[in-house]
Every structure is written in structure tokens, then in C-alpha cells.
Amino acid sequence: MLMDWLHTDTCDYIVRICAAALCGAIIGFERDRHGKAAGVRTHLLVSVGSALFTIMSFVIAAAAGQASDPGRIAAQVVTGMGFLGAGTIMKEGMNVRGLTTAACLWTVSAIGMTCGAARYGLAGTATLLTIGFLVGLNYFEQLYHKDIDRVLKITCAHSVDVATLISCVKQHNLVIDSLDLTRNYDDDTTVIRLLLHMHGSSFADAQSSALVNSIEECGVKLKSVKWERP
After folding, report:
1. In angstroms, rounded to a whole number, what is the distance separating the alpha carbons of residues 42 and 32?
2. Angle at 102 between CA 96 and CA 105, to 5 degrees
3. What is the pLDDT of residue 202?
4. Alpha-carbon gap, residue 185 to 182, rounded angstroms
5. DSSP track, 111-150
């Protein structure tokens, strides 16, 4: 170990690893601040590990001579990140979460490899751009309304006119993607689940109240109304 520390390139390698750790920690902090599963520690370790793999690729290739390809070990980092990134992606109903965090881990591994190759300017630029996109686009996305999906669960009388209910919903410029109807003959109720697609609108209390009032005015005898995520 002492000989390794006395090696002329060791200090340079330490600088590369520290640079990778700093870049990974900066991006990880942004993810951690938003409560994501992969935070500072995960991004830091991914970046450091990628840098170390890249460094060892050069070291092993230099020791083996011209017969060795320095890109063989580093190339496996890209493949390995696919498995790690997939672990952060979760599907909840019709929603998919964790894609941004998975992309961040993938980007951090590339930044770590860049630091491992001693391309600090490129790594720093990539880090700043990544943070800029994560923070800047988050504010930009708040300037416009996205299409969203919501499930409207209606419990009403057994004799409900489904056609009338659908007509009331469509009056609010909502698209019904699917309809699920369950009749309970024990208590004479009908449960209707409507998957609604809202074009360019923000889900607000005023909008939901207006829809419920419209349904009541159509003569539908409501027992309960509940909004759910798909």
C-alpha cells in the first residue's frame, strides 16, 4: 500500500476521484432535496465508482501494453448503470416514477468517468448543465399546465343513468379514457370509476367542485364522491 501511495500518479488519481465525488454530490443534493430515494450518497458513490473504474481501465491497459483495450472495463459501467437505474423506476397505476432519478444516475456515472479521464472542464460543465436543467426546468414546468389523469370514484343510487352521468362529465371538457361500473345489490348502490384525462389543466378544488355540482344538477343521486390518482 505504501508503494501505491508513493506512485507518481497516485495524487493525480486522488484528485480525479475527489472531483468525481464533488460532482456526484452536487447532483445528488438536488435529488435528495426533493425526497428522492437516490440522494447524495448514492450519486456520490456512483460517480466515484465510475471514476475509479475508468482510472483502472487506463492503469491495467498501460500495464498490459498495446494488447489491452483501455475501454473494456469502462464500457461495463454503462451496462451496470442500466441495472442500478432500473431499481429507481417504479410504476404506480398508470404513472411511472423515478425516471429522472435514473437518468441522473446514468449522467453521474458518465461525469465520474469523465473525471476519471482527467477531463475536469468537461465534467464541471456537465455538472453545471445537469443542475441547471434539474432546477431551471422545474420552475419552467410550473409556468404551463400539463395534461393529467385522475380517477373519479362515484357511489350513487342503483338506478343511476350512466349516459346522463357521462354527458355531465363531458360538459367540463374532460375526456373519459375508461369507465368501470360495479353494482352492489345488497345496499342498492352503484360504484362508477371514471378515468378522466384533463387537457392542459391543473387539478384544483374549484374544478372538482364544479364537476360534482354539475352531476348533482343532472339528477344523479350521489352518496359519495372521491378523487384518486390512477
Report:
1. 10
2. 170
3. 56
4. 10
5. HHHHHHTT-HHHHHHHHHHHHHHHHHHHHHHTTSPPPEEE
Amino acid at 54: T
- 93 burial type by CB count under 10 A (0-12 exposed, 13-18 middle, 19+ buried): exposed
Contact 158, 221 (CB under 8 A): no
Q: Which stretches does DSSP call E strand in the chain?
A: 90-92, 95-97, 148-157, 174-184, 189-198, 222-228
Distance CA(179)–CA(219), nearest Å, equals: 20
Give strand pairing partners of 190: 156, 183
pLDDT of residue 2: 42
8 A C-beta contact, residue 197 and residue 149: yes
Query: Which grid cell sits at 164?
Result: 346522463
Torsion angle of alpha carbons 131, 133, 136, 142, nearest 10°?
-130
Q: What is the residue extent of each domain of the chain?
A: 2-141, 148-228
Q: What is the DSSP letter of 67?
A: G
Q: Give the type of residue at 169.
A: V
Architecture of domain 148-228: 2-Layer Sandwich (3.30)
Distance CA 168, CA 90 (A): 35
Q: Which residue has the cell 410550473?
A: 142
What is the per-residue pLDDT across 100-150, written as a single tens digit (0 to 9) for each? 888 888 888 889 888 888 888 888 888 988 888 888 877 776 776 667 778
Longest dimension (CA), the chain: 86
